[in-house]
Design brief:
With 102 residues, the protein is α+β, with helices and mostly antiparallel strands. It has helices at 3-10, 21-28, 50-63, 70-79, and strands at 38-48, 86-96. It is built from four helices and two strands. The protein has a two-stranded antiparallel sheet. Helix 3 crosses helix 4 (70-79). The longest helix is centred in the middle third of the chain and has 14 residues, at 50-63. The two termini are 32 Å apart.
């Protein structure tokens, strides 16, 4: 369960509830001064060995409650190497929530 889902569950909301920053803003700062969310796009490059990529992928899948299929992932990684390395770009939408403290 992600931190975001844990926050929502602890507030009586289901994991299926909308989980964008505005929803979290409503939940976390209800009754307080308004939050000023800033949302922005970010991306980064990654390159490493197939073994490193496998470790990253297995951790990510497990973190989200999945069961990684090591052999299938290894097969894909073996076909996606360039000069013995795996390269990928991660693109995400990140957010920062700021509210005044009184």
């Amino acid at each position: 369960m992600t931190t975001e889902m844990s926050i929502m569950s602890s507030r009586g909301r289901s994991d299926e509830a909308q989980s964008d920053m505005e929803s979290l803003d409503e939940i976390i700062v209800a009754g307080r001064a308004p939050c000023f969310p800033k949302i922005f796009d970010a991306s980064w490059e990654w390159a490493g060995t197939a073994e490193d990529a496998l470790e990253e992928m297995v951790g990510f899948i497990a973190m989200h409650g999945g069961r990684p299929r090591h052999r299938e992932i290894e097969g894909v990684l073996s076909r996606c190497q360039l000069d013995g390395r795996v390269h990928h770009t991660t693109e995400v939408e990140e957010g920062l929530m700021v509210w005044p403290v009184q």
